[in-house]
Design goal:
By secondary structure, the protein is α+β, with helices and mostly antiparallel strands. The chain contains six helices and 13 strands. The chain folds into two domains: 2-106, Jelly Rolls, CATH 2.60.120.10; 113-244.
């Protein structure tokens, strides 16, 4: 038996020959199972147990900032001389109930492929959502114009073109993606923090249309378009963050 200690962002590789038939229990923090195909697996909290035999797990990762610890038991005692367990010759009494207790400490692994895969996956999802938000808001603006909304802003004396809705939506959606990626990297609860941040920013974005001096129809339509873009981006990014952390 040994204790695997994972500092925030750390990752420990599971070597099949050495971890065969191992059983682990999370004693503190959270641990995410990284699957053999590179996809993120479930995130396990305190007192959660897992069996590595036949699970296709290639690494254990700490998705948060708080140190996580896992008690690992294998049919035969192991020790650690590096970051991987090494089997020892069987001694008398060396079994499941008589094992050596060695602590394994691993540091952050922010530059490893698992992190890159997660960030790229989130960014890709965000860019697809951005395109969807641009198309949706532009179509909604075209529909509003078709029913009589002029989108004229008195302050500049100009009418907002349809392309303007696409550009503005795309810009602020990309900002949202950048925020999501940053929270995935540095926050222990990225999904919850992202939703809170996005809702606050969306609420602030409703102020300019209301004080622009435009007629009621234009102001209402602009507010609605802001909400449409938020309704597309926020759920998609929040869901993507949860699948990669929580």
């Amino acid at each position: 038996m040994w204790t695997l200690t994972l500092r925030g962002g750390a990752r420990a590789t599971v070597v099949t020959a050495e971890w065969y038939d191992a059983f682990g229990v999370v004693t503190s923090g959270r641990v995410q199972l990284e699957l053999r195909d590179g996809e993120p697996g479930p995130v396990l909290g305190r007192d959660a147990g897992f069996w590595l035999r036949g699970t296709g797990v290639r690494a254990l990762r700490n998705p948060g900032r708080r140190t996580a610890r896992v008690r690992v038991v294998t049919p035969r005692a192991v020790t650690r001389q590096s970051t991987h367990p090494v089997r020892q010759p069987r001694d008398e009494g060396d079994d499941m109930n008589s094992t050596k207790d060695t602590e394994i400490v691993t540091g952050p692994a922010s530059g490893r492929p698992g992190h890159t895969h997660r960030f790229r996956g989130l960014a890709g999802t965000g860019l697809i959502a951005t395109l969807a938000a641009m198309v949706t808001t532009t179509l909604a603006a075209a529909l509003a114009r078709a029913v009589g909304v002029d989108f004229e802003i008195p302050a500049g004396g100009e009418t907002i073109p349809l392309s303007g809705f696409a550009v503005v939506t795309g810009f602020f959606s990309v900002v949202g993606v950048v925020i999501a990626v940053a929270l995935l990297r540095w926050s222990a609860r990225p999904a919850a923090r992202f939703v809170w941040t996005a809702v606050v920013l969306t609420a602030l974005s409703l102020v300019p249309p209301l004080i622009s001096g435009a007629n009621a129809a234009t102001s209402t339509a602009l507010v609605g378009l802001h909400l449409v873009a938020a309704a597309v981006m926020i759920p998609v990014l929040a869901r993507s963050l949860r699948t990669r952390t929580d």
